[in-house]
Specification:
It is built from seven helices and 15 strands. The chain is an alpha+beta fold. A four-stranded antiparallel beta sheet has the order 9-12-8-15. The longest helix has 117 residues. About 5% of the residues have low confidence.
Length: 421
């Protein structure tokens, strides 16, 4: 959005939020699913980035809003709207085919090796919470990613990496204008079994957005960027290295957590022992005071009242120490229970992962069996068609023979009639 005058006027008196509201009104009856103010390199114009639900709506709004002029509220500055489609260049077939035919440095790409050919689609800036099983500890679930992209063809394997890159992560994910928040995002890598599936995925994802829909709620949209693997990220060797590194980091985190819990447990034990020792000393002191008190009472003790008050103060201090000991013991028990819960949670997650794996294998076997049944049915149908064709040909042959025999018989009858006449 720029000023009308030549050279432009500084937009210091223009409120960007009011301009944004005006852009929403100019786009009616259509609506932006996402719009935000970008960092402008100069004061002569404001730069906005917006998104629509599909390309048809975007083309209509571009024709409707381009070169539109309006006056900023509370200012004499006339603003002109210049709108165009973003220059994001989507990868083409010629681009990736040419890339994998050339030599990348000293490495020659191999069409027979997975990960070193055109078989892996990269989808960037996916919201982590949308693909996680646990909302408290968001981590992408590979099964969700695999199920979402399996419609383009059979998937060999999937992987992911966290993404927190400046300038590429969307500032907000909106639900038809309602802000969703700033999500933690990741890049998903989907490796297909063959080139046809990869090509279908690259074509099917072009110009699309990710949508999440719950019953009775408005759909939520999130933009993403599509590319292909240029660095051999999904090659088997690189995948094994990442897997080993993740296992090493998980084991290291587990050891650190166990060491921390052990340190806390020892610290609490020391505190408890210290308090118990102090409690024993106070108990001994109280007993000594009681002994002295009894001796003084036996002698008709002049300082009876004073000793009694001292005994009460010592009892109160002992009760306070007992409460502190109970609190320390409770904290120690809580730490142990948290450690046990963490181990149990990890065991349940592993068990759930095994169940999901068995379910995927069972589903794959069922699909293969269904495919075999369909192939057998197709073969049976072809055999029946061939048998039917053979029977039809034999029947037609017999019918022709019968017609020929009938014609001969009629010819003989005609000859006999002619002779009699």
């Amino acid at each position: 959005v720029s000023t009308q005058s030549t050279g432009g006027e500084p937009l210091v008196d223009v409120n960007s939020w009011e301009v944004m509201e005006k852009l929403h009104k100019l786009a009616e009856p259509e609506r932006f699913t996402h719009i935000r103010l970008q960092k402008s390199p100069a004061l002569e114009f404001l730069l906005f980035e917006g998104q629509f639900q599909d390309r048809e709506i975007m083309s209509y709004v571009i024709k409707q809003m381009n070169n539109t002029k309006f006056k900023a509220q509370g200012s004499n500055v006339v603003l002109t709207v210049k709108i165009k489609e973003d220059g994001y260049e989507y990868p083409t077939v010629d681009e990736w085919e040419t890339y994998f035919k050339t030599i990348n440095g000293k490495k020659q790409w191999s069409e027979c090796t997975p990960g070193e050919r055109a078989d892996t689609v990269i989808i960037k800036n996916l919201p982590t919470k949308w693909f996680s099983l646990d909302s408290n500890n968001p981590k992408p679930c590979e099964r969700f990613l695999k199920d979402a992209l399996a419609l383009f063809g059979q998937i060999r394997k999937v992987d992911y990496e966290d993404c927190v890159e400046d300038g590429e992560v969307s500032d907000d994910v909106t639900s038809l204008g309602n802000q969703f928040g700033i999500p933690v995002t990741f890049n998903g890598y989907i490796q297909y079994q063959n080139y046809a599936s990869f090509k279908a995925a690259m074509g099917g994802l072009k110009g699309k957005q990710l949508m999440r829909l719950f019953p009775g709620q408005k759909p939520t949209f999130s933009p993403f960027v599509v590319d292909y693997d240029r660095a051999g990220f999904m090659a088997d060797r690189a995948h094994k290295i990442r897997k080993a590194e993740r296992e090493r980091l998980a084991e290291e985190a587990k050891r650190k957590h166990e060491a921390y819990m052990k340190q806390q447990s020892e610290l609490m034990k020391k505190q408890l022992e210290k308090k118990q020792k102090r409690k024993r000393k106070l108990e001994e002191k109280r007993q000594e005071e009681e002994r002295r008190k009894n001796e003084e009472e036996a002698e008709g003790g002049v300082r009876k009242g004073k000793k009694k008050d001292m005994g009460k103060s010592e009892m109160k201090e002992m009760e306070t120490l007992e409460d502190e000991c109970k609190q320390v013991a409770a904290q120690l028990l809580k730490g142990v229970l948290m450690k046990v819960a963490a181990v149990e949670r990890e065991r349940l997650m592993e068990q759930r992962k095994d169940v999901m794996t068995r379910y995927s294998e069972q589903k794959k076997r069922q699909e293969e069996e269904m495919k075999m049944v369909q192939e057998d049915q197709a073969k049976s149908a072809e055999a029946m068609k061939a048998r039917e064709k053979e029977l039809r040909e034999r029947l037609m042959k017999k019918f022709k023979q019968f017609e020929e025999k009938k014609q001969k018989t009629q010819d003989k009858i005609q000859k006999k009639k002619h002779i009699i006449i």
